[in-house]
Amino acid sequence: MKELIVEADTKNLEQVIDFINRELEFRQCSDKIKYEIDIAVEEIYVNIANYAYSPEIGDARIRCEIEEQPLQIVIQFLDNGRPYNPLQRTDPDINLCLEERQVGGLGIYLVKQSMTSVNYEYRGGKNILTIRKELDSN
User: Fold this and answer.
1) Which of 48, 58, 86, 126 would staple 53 via disulfide (CB 3.0–4.6 Å)?
2) Dihedral angle at the C-alpha atoms of 124, 127, 130, 131, nearest 10 degrees?
């Protein structure tokens, strides 16, 4: 796995997205898939930057690899911030009108809907969120 370590700050979001997109550069996946991956990476990274260490700042470690069978990208987000499993959050009721919806939760819901799989574990004092997205556009 290739790895990028950055200070968990939103100012580093572009660097994180560029790191992921470099891995996708030579893969023939659709613009739609690239867009879905970019949105998921942004959602997860910004949540780490805003909440994992608040009010302090710590590091975020992003790992990325391409697997061949099936052709998919695997991205891991690791931080030493306070333990938090975003997958335990109740999915928002998207059938309600905006005024009736509770604030929060829509971003991780979209990540879960757009990725092939999303997994969380807390191990060795680290939050580890792993997303997978199949790259075959068929």
Assistant:
1) 58
2) 180
Q: Is the pTM of this model over 0.70?
A: yes
90 Cβ contact partners less than 8 Å away, ≥ 6 residues apart: 105
Q: In percent, how much of the chain has pLDDT > 70? A: 86
pLDDT over 60 at 98, yes or no: no
Beta bridge partners, 119, equal: 130
CB of 129 closer than 8 Å to CB of 123: no
C-alpha angle 83/94/21, rounded to 5°? 60
Range 23-32 contact pairs with CB under 8 angstroms and sequence separation of 24 or more:
23/64, 23/65, 23/66, 23/73, 24/73, 24/135, 27/66, 27/71, 27/73, 27/135, 28/135, 28/137, 29/135, 29/136, 29/137, 30/137, 32/137
Say which residues have a Cβ less than 8 Å from residue 85's Cβ, sequence separation at least 6: 120, 122, 127
Burial bucket for residue 111 (CB in 10 Å: 0-12, 13-18, 19+): buried
Average pLDDT estimate for 109-137: 94
